[in-house]
Write a structure and sequence with these properties.
Elements (H helix, E strand, L loop, with lengths): L2 H12 L21 H9 L8 H8 L7 H24 L3 H22 L8 H17 L6 E7 L2 E8 L8 E7 L6 H14 L3 E5 L6 H4 L10 H12 L4 E11 L2 H9 L7 E5 L6 H5 L4 H6 L6 H11 L4 H11 L7 H8 L15 E6 L8 H8 L4 E6 L14 H15 L2
Parallel strand pairs: 3-4, 3-5, 5-6, 6-7, 7-8
Antiparallel strand pairs: 1-2, 2-4
Helix pairs in contact: 2-5, 4-5, 5-6, 7-17, 9-10
């Protein structure tokens, strides 16, 4: 992207009028209703070197408004390009360059995953995830010190996890367990907490719960509301690790993790402190926000499942955005039945649960919360443990879901509180 187009795009984003005779700038990709949040995720990751801002601008310049195919192609092609750079660097033993390029590639492939369901060939999602996972795995092995790959026993199965260390000393340190959301991946958690933990002397664990990353794509493990059944095995495994201080284990949840973490902390009391970013009081609320009462009544009767699914499917919008959202949100539940999912999500509530949390809790409340507006305050008000509510604002550049545009300031607030809570 040349300097003129860069400035024109910047003017468009800032609302600056174009002088007569100039080519009108394209709409800002960061305000696009379909792709804006994905672009903001990618831009924010530049803080921790998972993309270059100039490269991101070059990518989004190729995306047509509302065109999922152009978005998938732009991000996926950038992932292929970055992977080739990583392989070239690795072959020449340029370890730092290889690690960074693998992280670029992982980030680009992940962005492609976020839009792939809206294309006419969603079957590309699994190969795209495999591309992502291979690049993340390569990058993790090149961290300094390298990440330790773990398999955590989980019933009759196992959950994959990555232990990232602040240094190679092997000494016992406080541990931050990072709990992803509904559609996140490991490389996102490096930006949303991992890098911030390491720079402050914490070790951190990134794990894939049911419905997340390889637990979903390869192991066919799906979401569950009783997340303590996930966190307790994770804590059990980490308490056996010689580098974990058992008195200083924290649990941070992002996005839908803002429900899972408080739910788990209500029953798992070996955690020293918890963070919900943002607080999620009732996962079902966005699903039912505009739902007709007569359809709610049908959910009470198991015998009406087929009728219900037929009615909802027939009445659901067929535009790419709606189809993409439905595919993305239904896949981790392991069913394509609206009846089954809507009955299931009613269990994802902190009503009668939040009061059981005993450890200190930080709840974030970003201005312009995209998915769960008002939920953070409901959770905060219900807590009876030591608690703090942190408001993130537009003025701080942190006014979106999980503060994706300001990961540095996000870590500043979260880790300052966490260091004091676990001191």
């Amino acid at each position: 992207m040349n300097r003129r187009s860069f400035l024109t795009l910047g003017a468009a984003a800032a609302g600056v009028p174009v002088r007569a005779g100039e080519v009108p700038p394209p709409p800002s990709p960061f305000a696009d209703p379909d792709f804006g949040f994905t672009a903001q995720l990618a831009l924010g990751s530049a803080y921790y070197r998972e993309t270059d801002p100039g490269k991101l601008l070059a990518i989004v310049s190729k995306i047509k408004p509302g065109d999922y195919e152009s978005a998938f192609t732009a991000y996926h092609d950038a992932g292929v390009e970055a992977r080739a750079l990583a392989e070239q660097a690795l072959a020449r033993r340029h370890t730092v360059s290889a690690r960074e390029a693998y992280l670029w590639a992982a980030g680009h492939f992940n962005a492609a995953l976020r839009v792939g369901d809206g294309t006419t060939h969603p079957e590309r999602m699994l190969p795209c995830w495999k591309d992502y996972h291979a690049c993340w795995t390569a990058a993790a092995s090149l961290l300094d010190p390298p990440a330790e790959r773990l398999e955590i026993p989980y019933g009759g199965a196992a959950l994959s996890a990555w232990l990232l260390r602040a240094d190679a000393s092997g000494r016992r340190r406080p541990l931050v367990i990072l709990n992803n959301g509904a559609d996140g991946v490991e490389s996102r958690m490096l930006v949303l907490g991992g890098a911030g933990a390491l720079s402050r002397g914490f070790n951190c664990l990134i794990f894939n719960g049911p419905g997340q990353s390889d637990s979903l794509w390869e192991r066919k493990l799906y979401f569950r509301h009783d997340w303590e059944k996930v966190i307790t095995p994770v804590v059990d495994a980490m308490l056996r690790h010689p580098e974990v201080d058992p008195r200083r284990i924290a649990l941070i949840g992002v996005s839908m993790g803002g429900y899972w973490v408080p739910r788990a902390l209500a029953f798992e009391h070996r955690i020293a402190a918890g963070v919900a970013d943002p607080g999620v009081w009732d996962v079902s609320e966005p699903w039912f926000r505009n739902f007709p009462p007569f359809l709610r009544d049908m959910l009470k009767d198991e015998s009406r499942k087929s009728e219900f699914d037929t009615m909802v499917t027939a009445g659901a919008p067929k535009d790419p955005r709606s189809l993409a959202t439905a595919r993305l949100r239904m896949r981790p539940f392991g069913t394509d039945s609206y009846f089954d999912i809507l009955r299931a999500v009613r269990n994802y509530t902190l009503v009668g649960v939040a009061q059981r949390i005993t450890c200190p809790m930080l709840v974030t409340d970003p201005e312009n919360e995209n998915y769960f507006p008002g939920h953070s305050k409901k959770l905060y008000d219900a807590l009876t443990c030591p608690k703090k509510l942190v408001t993130f604002t537009r003025e701080q550049g942190a006014a979106e879901h999980c503060e994706v545009g300001a990961p540095g300031y996000r870590d500043y607030c979260i880790y300052n509180w966490l260091e004091e809570a676990m001191s």
